[in-house]
Design goal:
Radius of gyration: 23 Å
CATH class of one domain: Alpha Beta
CATH architecture of one domain: 3-Layer(bba) Sandwich
CATH topology of one domain: FAD/NAD(P)-binding domain
Number of strands: 20
CATH superfamily of one domain: FAD/NAD(P)-binding domain
Strand content: 15-25%
Oligomer: single chain
Bound molecules: 3-acetylpyridine adenine dinucleotide
Helix content: 25-40%
Length: about 550
């Protein structure tokens, strides 16, 4: 099924093939069409939204507040109203349909069309793209907009395939829905997806068993409903808000880190700042307190202790409290992405909810009727795999991209991932990544990054067309230099101390390196510098 065009057959030559109809893919389609390029978007899902299409598990909602988390184009926000500050996945899906309608994008999007192979033709300087629905294209440029979470990670749990109950990964939840009502549910994993599923399952599951390996440091969401009147009033300031969002430090209009060390103030002042950030909710406690939280262990510990005490105050059982919010931090605060919660900690006071520490007592196997750890057995009707993603690079390897000499991403990055500015890699001419590895991805947010990084991509393609270039390729030296620069930034922070997906460390065997660039403003400056200097580090011909 496609939206708009007849899916059968060959599209012939297009200027740009885009993979993915999430924020980045839609933005590229909108802007490149405006610039006069022909564009085709291939999307594996049956609708737009990317992660917001696939992650339809009960309780899924975004952790970045609106209106920051939306496109800045007035024709989109003018008639759009949210119901909540942190919208749910169904509301986000409606938003994506609104975007597609308002910008009239549908005719160029091919849904249920997974890119299965893309080969670079050295003679024509074009990508031959083949898809699961039979649509093909010969594209001058291939823009990979698959996001960081396109490939779910399922750990190697012995016996998982023999489980006879219901089993879903959060990112492959049935689109038709699956409730927890009256079931004995086991949730494996306590990252952002696990937190949200647990909150929901605790309401109606007969029994909920949460298998925790590492405690999440979940922050108070401080959810709020939003009225039409309040949004109408706020819209008077949207143009200015989006202008600020796009300026240094970039990505959030109202999350500004203080230019003050946590160690330079006394405890009372520190707590005042922390209380204020806590009350504002969302990522404020992570990203808008002191300037050395993520670089100085002592400063970081003050954040952790504040979070721990806030959290433990809500837990009735001291043993459960010690597992969920240990006396000493299991990793530095904020070096794994903090999830947002509404009543995650409170549900552990309920009689139908149990916590199992699978660090101390690891899962040994999944049986046809449940889960067995070294010491205990749990009978379950349903297993939820909230085990995250082969993030940043995993989704890319699924596309069957063959660059020069048939090289795949997996081959090029076998020992370590390296991309020039997080947008291009040697051996893959005319291919640009948006929201990809070694760009600000996880430290920016979808719509903002789609616009900020996206404009650079639009400018680059326009520059090539205007100057008569048909080929752009990164150099191995530039890839290596950017990757080393990312390493240097990682070394100056505490991120390396956590086994997180930021570091590729959640998937066994993956090279361990910082896969996201933590400085949005520095990144944008580098992009601008590169364009202004005539694209050093790239070969244009
Ligand atoms: O994945 P995760 P996620 N046995 O990797 C555990 C975004 N997101 O899907 O920490 C037992 O964070 C693993 O344990 P450990 C957001 O950016 C956003 O939750 O490796 N447990 C961990 O607890 C987020 O950061 C939203 O020890 C195992 C969990 O599985 C990112 O996506 C919502 C295990 C995986 O946590 C990823 O979040 C959802 C095993 N063998 C997601 N293997 C919002 O916007 C893994 N685990 C709110």
């Amino acid at each position: 099924m496609t939206s708009g065009k007849d899916p059968a057959g060959h599209l012939g030559q297009v200027d740009v093939a885009v993979v993915g109809a999430g924020f980045n893919g839609l933005y590229q389609l909108y802007r490149l069409r405006q610039e006069g390029f022909s564009v085709a978007v291939f999307e594996a899902g049956a609708g737009p939204g990317g992660v917001w299409y696939w992650n339809c598990y009960p309780g899924a909602r975004v952790d970045s507040h609106v209106p920051n988390y939306e496109f800045s184009m007035e024709q989109i926000w003018r008639d759009w109203y949210w119901t909540e500050r942190f919208p749910s996945q169904p509301e986000l899906q409606r938003y994506f349909h609104h975007v597609v309608d308002v910008l009239a994008l549908a005719p160029d999007i091919y849904y249920e069309t997974r890119v299965e192979n893309a080969r670079f033709d050295e003679t024509a300087n074009r990508w031959s793209v083949e898809t699961s629905s039979g649509v093909t294209a010969e594209a001058r440029h291939l823009l990979v907009c698959t996001g960081f979470a396109a490939k779910p990670y399922v750990p190697d749990l012995p016996g998982l395939e023999r489980f006879e109950g219901i089993c879903h990964h959060t990112a492959r939840w049935p689109q038709s829905g699956q409730s927890f009502d009256g079931l004995k549910v086991g949730v494996i994993g306590t990252g952002a997806s696990g937190v949200q599923v647990v909150q929901e399952a605790a309401k109606t599951a007969a029994e909920l068993t949460v298998f925790q390996r590492t405690p999440v440091m979940a922050l108070a969401m401080q959810q709020a409903t939003m009225s039409v009147e309040e949004q109408d009033e706020a819209k008077l300031g949207y143009a200015e808000m989006f202008r600020v969002r796009n300026e240094p430090p970039g990505s959030f209009a109202d999350l500004i880190r203080l230019n003050v060390s946590a160690m330079s103030v006394d405890e009372a002042e520190r707590n005042r700042v922390y209380e204020q950030a806590w009350a504002r909710g969302g990522f404020h406690f992570w990203a808008a307190t002191f300037n050395d939280i993520l670089t100085n262990e002592q400063a970081n510990r003050t954040s952790y202790d504040f979070w721990r005490d806030k959290t433990r105050a809500r837990l009735q059982d001291p043993a459960v409290a010690e597992l969920l919010a240990p006396t000493d931090p299991p990793y530095p605060f904020g070096t794994k992405r903090p999830s947002l919660e509404q009543d995650y900690y409170d549900v552990f006071n309920q009689p139908n909810v149990a916590l199992v520490d699978v660090k101390a007592d690891p899962i040994s196997e999944v049986t046809p009727v449940g889960v067995r750890t070294a010491d205990r057995s749990f009978e379950l009707d349903m297993i939820v795999l909230a085990t995250g993603f082969d993030a940043n690079t995993g989704g890319l390897s699924q596309l069957g991209v063959e660059g020069r000499n048939g090289m795949s991403f997996a081959e090029y990055w076998a020992d370590r991932v390296q991309l020039n500015l997080g947008v291009a890699a040697a051996g893959f001419p005319n291919l640009l990544f948006l929201y990809g590895p070694q760009s600000p991805t996880a430290f920016c947010n979808g719509p903002t990054c789609a616009e900020l990084q996206g404009e650079w991509v639009v400018d680059t393609l326009r520059h090539m067309r205007d100057e008569g270039y048909t080929r752009l390729e990164s150099t191995p030296e530039a890839d290596a230099a950017w990757s080393e620069h990312c390493d240097a930034i990682a070394a100056a922070t505490l991120f390396g101390q956590a086994d997180s997906w930021y570091m590729g460390a959640n998937v066994p065997g993956k090279p361990r390196q910082l896969l996201n660039y933590p400085l949005v403003d520095g990144y944008l400056a580098k992009l601008a510098e590169t364009a202004a200097a005539g694209y050093p580090g790239f070969e244009l011909s």
